[in-house]
Amino acid sequence: MRRASLLLLLLVLPCLARSQQRPAITGIAFLRVYSSDPAASANFYGNTLGFHPVESNGLTRYSVNASQWIEVKPLPSPAPASRMEAVAFTTRNAAALVRYLKAHSVEIIQPIEHGTFGVHDPEGNLILFIQSGIRPTGLPSPSPTATSHRIIHAGLLVRDRAAEDHFYRDLLGFRPYWHGGKTDDRTDYVSLQVPDGSDWLEYMLNVSPAPTLHDYGVVDHFSLGTTHMSDVVQALARNKCAGPNCTKTQIGRDGKVQLNLFDPDLTRVEYMEFQPTNKPCCSDFTAKHPTETESR
Q: Which residues, at least 6 apart from 227, have a Cβ–Cβ distance to it below 8 Å?
């Protein structure tokens, strides 16, 4: 009897272990931001950035490519401090990821529905996961006037790096990509790639204890990738982008060419070339760079 019980246990344990394996997390699906002026936001995302919109139940979505989009939502009252409501990642098995997170005592604050569920990370940020291959009903095809066809990263204000590392690195399997700072002797930015792709999450560290709306907009941001920044500048000109920021490019601390725009609620949209032009400060890249197209 004991031998039979031991044999059964040996058969069951591998199955239990497999059931707790983390399903693949392959990239960013969408960002959701708040808008205090829907008409101004529609002009910015639809006309200046060139994305096709679709509206549903008060939410406006802008298609970036076949598997990524931007969501714009009316600003609630009272208004939250940050205008970034959520970052959503794609997973190849949403139901299994729910089981995995529950097994590790992570509360599911938005139960799975239509392949999507939500949790809070240790900083209280709303993090969504969506089953790969699922797109919102009616989402339009990517626009030929779009200034980019790829979301490559999202940035979030981080106060407790150790707690965030436990969640993103230890539990979810995110991998180091690059880190650096405003000067060579400090770390203000930590980039962690998703475990099964090249998109990344950027910790924005050492932010003022009392951030203004502009401060939040700078750090709680998202990035659109491009092979050549000159293509973005030309597309913005065709879309009648007005102001000096429409042509103001710079080399970031990571050695990549950047261009920054701000939506009407001061959320930063950071255009960035996929490959670095200069050697990065502070640390080398430790993973592959994103490309124009990537499977999800």
A: 273, 274, 275, 292
Task: Provide CB contacts within 8 A for 32, sequence distance 6+.
Answer: 70, 71, 72, 73, 84, 85, 86, 87, 88
Contact present, 127 and 121 (Cβ < 8 Å): yes
Q: Which pLDDT belongs to residue 3?
A: 54
Which residues of the chain register pLDDT less than 50?
1, 4-19
Task: Identify which of 5, 191, 150 has the alpha carbon closest to the alpha carbon of residue 67.
Answer: 150
| Residue whose pair of structure tokens reads 């600003």 in the numeric block | 75
CB atoms within 10 A of CB 295: 9
pLDDT at position 296 is 64
**Whether the predicted model's global pTM rises above the 0.90 cut:** yes
Domains of the chain as residue ranges with CATH: 22-291 (3.10.180.10)
What does 129-170 look like in DSSP terms, one character per residue? Answer: EEETT---TTPPPPPTT-S-S-EEEEEEE-S-HHHHHIIIII
Task: Let me know: does 32 contact 88? Beta carbons within 8 Å.
Answer: yes
What the block records as the tokens of 163 is 């707690």
CA-closest candidate to residue 45, choices 157, 140, 155: 140
